[in-house]
Amino acid sequence: MPAGTRREKGGFAMFSRIVSCLTLLLAIGFAGQSAAEERYQPFAENRGWTIAYDRQDKVCIATPKGGQGGLFFIRPNGRDVVVLIASAKLGWLTHDQDYDVVVHTDRRKWTGTMRANVTDGSGGLYLTNPAAGFMSALRGAGRLTLSLDNVSYGPFSLSGSNDTIKQIADCAKALDRGDFGPTETKQTSEAKEVDIFPGTMIDWSRADFGKTYRSEDWTITLSGEDGEDGTALAVAKVRHKDKGETTVRLETGPEDMGRGQIGIYPLQWAEPGVVFSSFSGGAHCCTAVSLIHATGDAVKAVELGTFDGFGVAPIDLDEDGNVEFDLRDDRFLYAFSSYAEASPPVKIMALRDGEPRDVTSEDAFRPVIERRLTAAMRSCFEQSAPGVCAGALGNAALLGYFSPALDLMALEEIDKQMEDYLLDCDDTTACKGQPRFKDFADAARWRLANWGYQTEGELDGTVMAFVGELAKFKDGFAPVDAASENEYSCDMGPLTFEQDAEKGTALVRGYEYGCNFGAAALMKDSLVVDLLCSGEADFWIDRHVYTRDGDQLLSLSATGALDVEGATRFKACPAKPAAQP
Predict the structure, then answer these.
(1) Does residue 517 sit in the same domain as residue 563?
(2) Which residues contact 366 (CB under 8 A, 6 or more apart)?
(3) Is the pLDDT of residue 102 over 80?
(4) Residues 154, 201 within the same domain
(5) Residues 215, 135: one domain?
(6) Cross-strand bridge partners of residue 71
(7) Does 423 map to a domain?
(8) 252 contact partners, CB below 8 Å, separation of at least 6
(9) Considering the domain boundaries, does residue 381 fall inside one?
(10) Among 343, 416, 420, residue whose Cα is nearest residue 375
(11) Residue (of 323, 287, 285, 291) closest to 304 by Cα position
């Protein structure tokens, strides 16, 4: 456990109970909305934050002004505090796990571990009862920047942080004294009409049948029916103020198991639409989702699909003003491991020209998949779990890195954990007549290829020839100005190239790292190559350009991951003298 956080028993449960208020705060702030005014009792404010008592969750909360995310403080009492860094750009965090982060302020740096907030898809990382080192980094500082996976988020304003820490502590003391009294906000189930604020998903249950949900342009009336086959149906009558109405029926769970969500989000062309989902019940299944949008002269409903688990997370992943749906490929759930041990690759869907589309392969979402891939590769490295590693290969295949990723995995360790029955394949459609897979790698190649993933990626002859010439320099290359005692010198981790002509693969090694070739092409006299790299238990993606200049080599990192100062000129290392007998 890092020094930056003290996890007390019940800390996660406490956070899950109170984090629901953050979605509303991010959407509307404290002022100007009747629902917020009813729920939040103002306590104090300063130039950067508003501090209030949340009557519903019975906590004190400090939210940054502006409603665009930032640093939140939540105190349920005088002993405990939760600190949350929230931003829509962190919406890619979909796994409830710890992440190594660096928090910079203009006063100091804090390094430690924060946990992902995946409660409602709003995006963020939090600490429960942070240690003094974290809090001292905030005091008197003007701004904060969060670094995660070599990407910076922020800066977020810390203007007024000293006052905020003191004011929310005073609010917590008042809470302990009982100053806020027993006043409670009416439960949603008591109201016949509910306001929905854009960018917010509201949970519903069978107790909510008969309610009407209103937004600026939309009105949704929820009810229930019995289906012809005995199933229970959730019925949403959806009306647009100008374009008409439609009715959507989705299967839901029986009796008290029936539940789902309703939300208002920009679905296409930045126009608000309705997201309606219903959960059918069961341990592992299933949420049906419909999208309702206004066309030129009508209201149209389309089925996004049926997905494992409860709920969906609409989020604007490419920042174009329309939301996408951050999902996963459920075919992986039982193919390589049990359900609980599976970690499927990302699947992104969106509304395009009025129809749901799988947009995972669009260039705009490549950064999302790259982040998922590197995180999945780390998990596979740490666990060697077949379900986790298969998901990593799925993400890799989406980017053209299937073979490079497979070559970086500890396949013998994965095979030890692979359940024997998962190598059997009696489904001739899925396995093309093969009754049994040899091992994990064989199963992954067959299944992913059958599901439409790109698993083939041999380098072409011109690329192999270029790498072959570089591979002739057995002692490698070193920066022209590198001293012998420095990293990357001829004596300490020079740049070397290797290729496997039979497999059509290649790699480059440096000081304590190696990079496997993904897509590559020769452009005039330069080699441009996408690289999947690993070193010191970490993984990253890079794009490099290599150019020959006589017996020297010019190397440029397009992302700056390896050569932070731009192009580097390498010289061929002299041949080492043969060992004396």
Answers:
(1) yes
(2) 399
(3) yes
(4) no
(5) no
(6) 85
(7) no
(8) 206, 224, 232, 233, 234, 258, 259, 260, 278, 279, 280, 281
(9) no
(10) 343
(11) 291
* Whether the Cβ atoms of residue 57 and residue 185 lie closer than 8 Å to each other: no
> Taking the C-alpha atoms of 358, 362, 364 and 366 in order, what is their torsion angle to the nearest 10 degrees?
100
The answer for residues whose C-beta is within 8 angstroms of residue 308's C-beta and 6 or more apart is 284, 285, 286, 287, 328, 330, 333
Q: Could you give the CA distance from residue 42 to residue 61 in angstroms, rounded to a whole number?
A: 10
3-state secondary structure of 373: helix
- Give me 416's structure tokens: 């030890």
Residues 220, 238 contacting (CB under 8 angstroms): yes
Q: What is the pLDDT of residues 149-175, one digit of tens each?
A: 767 777 888 888 888 988 999 999 998
Sheet holding 143-148, edge to edge: 40-45, 49-54, 59-64, 70-75, 82-86, 124-128, 109-116, 98-105, 143-148, 151-157
Residues 164 and 67 in one domain: yes
Distance CA 95, CA 121 (A): 10
pLDDT band at 29 (very low <50, low <70, confident <90, very high): very low
Task: Copy the structure tokens of residue 19.
Answer: 């984090």
Tokens of 304: 């996004």
First to last CA, the chain: 52
Residue 270, pLDDT > 80, answer yes
What is the C-alpha to C-alpha distance for residues 459 and 403, in angstroms, rounded to an integer? Answer: 11
Full domain range(s) for residue 118: 11-177
CATH assignment of the domain containing 156: 2.60.40.1880
Token pair 């001293």: residue: 483
Beta bridge partners, 300, equal: 293
Residues composing the chain: 581
Q: What is the pLDDT of residue 205?
A: 87
Q: For residue 461, count other CB atoms closer than 10 A to its CB.
A: 12
- Paired residues of 533 in beta bridges: 515, 540
Question: Is residue 115 within a helix (H) or strand (E), and if so which, with residue range?
Answer: strand 109-116
In eight-state DSSP terms, residue 459 is P
Return d(Cα 184, Cα 172) in angstroms, integer. Answer: 17
* Strands, E assignment, 511-567: 513-523, 526-535, 538-549, 552-557
pLDDT greater than 80 at residue 135: no
Task: Select from 367, 396, 411 the last residue of a domain.
Answer: 367
Question: Predicted confidence band at 448 (pLDDT cuts at 50, 70, 90)?
Answer: very high
Least confident of 11-15, 51-55, 440-444: 11-15
Q: What is the pTM of this model?
A: 0.67
Residue type, 387: G
Residues 203-240: tens digit of each pLDDT: 998 889 999 999 989 999 999 987 666 678 999 999 99
> What does the DSSP assignment read for 215-241?
-SSEEEEEEEEE-TTS-EEEEEEEEET
Number of other CB atoms surrounding residue 121 within 10 Å: 19
